[in-house]
């Protein structure tokens, strides 16, 4: 079964993390909601006050994941950027040629800060554009060669999640979920 690791940090953007988790679940991806908490806890508070109890603490996530996805939200992205555990997991994911997905502030603050974008085409929240070398002003960018999927922000969270699903399970699976949610292209 295809597995995805979704990072939940204190301050992560509510809509983004929820859309990624929900759409991948609908598409038959086994999702692990991972709490980024140094104390080993499972509870996080998202940017707009939603409290979530995750499946595992990030420190306990050792499975092989087809994708590691990071939502934005300024505080959440800063917490992700500063997590040595997460950065090590992202570096391992890139080294094994697995997908990395990031949206909003995460591409510029997390991935670019740690050299994980490289020469890939990527997008992110427009205020982070200067951090991304090959920034593309588009809602969602999929760089297939570099296995990097990026999105600009909350308005694009469903399109971003569907792009992840399409990369992992194909266009038909993504179209089926899209249709079931009454989304049109």
UniProtKB/TrEMBL annotation:
InterPro entries hit by this protein: Class_I_gatase-like, DJ-1, DJ-1/PfpI, Prot/Nucl_acid_deglycase
Biological processes per GO annotation: glyoxal metabolic process
Residue stretches making up the DJ-1/PfpI domain: 4-167
Gene3D superfamilies: 3.40.50.880
GO cellular component, one term: cytoplasm
Entry-linked NCBIfam families: not_thiJ
Full protein name: DJ-1 family protein
Organism: Succinatimonas hippei (strain DSM 22608 / JCM 16073 / KCTC 15190 / YIT 12066)
Taxonomic classification: Bacteria, Pseudomonadati, Pseudomonadota, Gammaproteobacteria, Aeromonadales
């Amino acid at each position: 079964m295809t597995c995805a690791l979704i990072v939940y940090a204190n301050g992560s953007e509510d809509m983004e993390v929820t859309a990624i988790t929900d759409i991948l679940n609908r598409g038959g991806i086994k999702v692990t909601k991972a709490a980024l908490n140094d104390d080993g806890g499972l509870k996080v508070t998202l940017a707009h006050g939603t409290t979530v109890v995750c499946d595992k603490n990030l420190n306990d996530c050792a499975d092989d994941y087809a994708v590691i996805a990071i939502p934005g939200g300024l505080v959440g992205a800063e917490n992700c950027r500063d997590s040595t555990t997460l950065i090590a997991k992202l570096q391992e994911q890139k080294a094994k040629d697995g997908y990395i997905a990031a949206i909003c502030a995460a591409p510029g603050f997390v991935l670019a800060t740690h050299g994980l974008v490289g020469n890939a085409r990527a997008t992110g929240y427009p205020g982070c554009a200067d951090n991304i070398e090959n920034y593309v002003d588009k809602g969602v960018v999929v760089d297939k060669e570099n296995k990097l999927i990026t999105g600009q922000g909350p308005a694009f969270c469903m399109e971003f999640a569907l792009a992840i699903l399409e990369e992992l399970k194909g266009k038909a699976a993504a179209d089926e979920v899209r249709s079931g949610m009454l989304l049109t292209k």
